[in-house]
Specification:
The complex is a heterodimer of chains A (120) and B (189).
Chain A lengths: L1 H18 L4 H18 L4 H56 L19
Chain B lengths: L4 H52 L6 H14 L2 H13 L5 H5 L3 H4 L2 H12 L1 H21 L4 H10 L4 H19 L8
Helix pairs in contact in B: 1-7, 2-7, 2-9, 6-7, 7-8
Classes of the chains: A mainly alpha (120), B mainly alpha (189).
């Protein structure tokens, strides 16, 4: 019997390790399911157990999705920040060259630099 | 210890919800990894754009090429332009198809086309840098805002054959976006 529990424990730990790379969401889903099934084994009311567990799943999924979107947006900014800055610096050098080349009364073709706006 | 059928049913339902959650978490993780790869490629292309713009920072670069390089790099790194293209595509998915498939030789007869032709004879490296900047800007734009790919793909096909005409079209579209965003700043290409 002790061997069976050990095997079960190892299976559980391996399972958690396998889902860990997908973030805490997977681990929490497994823990909630284990708690729910454990409650049923201990004769908790089936309907209420399911309602409580499903509510916890839903609440966690909602909060996690919101946090995930925020993190993705931040990460996207981080990724392109340095290169965006490089491009802006290059654009500024070109703008200076263009301005230096133009005489005061020469008409512009159009809004040539795009206002040299920084898009943040 | 007896377990009734309602408990078994509830346990199965809980396990089903768990499997669904795990699948959703795995799918989201996969999407995130894919987005990271796209952004890595975008940063490489932005670095390429920056280096091409630096090459164009040369006394021999004609003013019109500088102007277009600035406008193109501005449009293709601008989230507002991406949103504008996305809106246009949402309203009419084929909005940009016909404009790029037709051969429009008249549009090649522009100041930019003349400047590219003249520079090709004297400083071909500057023309290469211009096309490289254009191409890198398009690629970075497509990687950052993949939903705009239907707009970018025809550009990619035409850029080597008709760089001047394609540059004009992008700048014209960018002007429409700027005019829509801030009336009064409208400009004509």
């Amino acid at each position: 019997m002790a061997g069976a529990w050990d095997n079960l424990g190892r299976l559980f730990r391996d399972g958690l390790r396998a889902i860990a790379p997908h973030g805490p969401g997977g681990v929490i889903a497994v823990l909630l399911a284990v708690i729910g099934v454990g409650g049923l084994v201990l004769h908790a009311d089936p309907l209420w157990t399911f309602i409580v567990v499903a509510f916890c799943f839903g609440a966690y999924a909602f909060l996690d999705e919101r946090d995930y979107r925020r993190r993705v947006t931040e990460r996207e900014r981080e990724f392109t920040k340095t290169t965006d800055t490089q491009v802006i610096a290059s654009r500024q050098r070109l703008t200076k060259r263009l301005e230096a080349r133009r005489s005061g009364d020469e008409p512009l073709l159009f809004d040539e630099t795009g206002g040299d706006r920084e898009h943040r | 210890m007896s377990i009734d059928s309602a408990s078994v049913l509830a346990a199965l339902a809980i396990v089903a919800v768990m499997v669904f959650s795990l699948t959703a978490a795995a799918e989201r993780s996969r999407r995130h990894a894919s987005r990271e790869r796209q952004l890595r490629r975008a940063t490489i292309e932005l670095g390429e754009l920056s280096s091409a713009l630096d090459e164009l920072d040369d006394e021999a670069t004609p003013a019109v090429m500088l102007v277009y390089a600035l406008r193109l790099s501005d449009a293709f790194t601008n989230p507002a332009f991406a949103a504008f293209v996305r809106d246009q595509l949402a309203q009419a998915p084929g909005a940009f198809d016909d404009k790029f498939d037709e051969a429009k030789p008249a549009e090649e007869d522009s100041e930019l086309a003349d400047a590219l032709q003249a520079t090709l004879r004297t400083r071909p490296d500057l023309v290469v840098a211009f096309v490289r900047a254009f191409s890198a800007a398009i690629s970075a734009f497509a990687e950052r805002w993949p939903e705009c790919t239907p707009y970018v793909e025809p550009l990619r096909r035409q850029i080597l054959a008709h760089p001047a005409a394609e540059a004009r079209r992008v700048v014209t579209l960018s002007n429409r976006q700027v005019a829509g965003a801030a009336p009064g700043l409208a400009v004509a290409a």
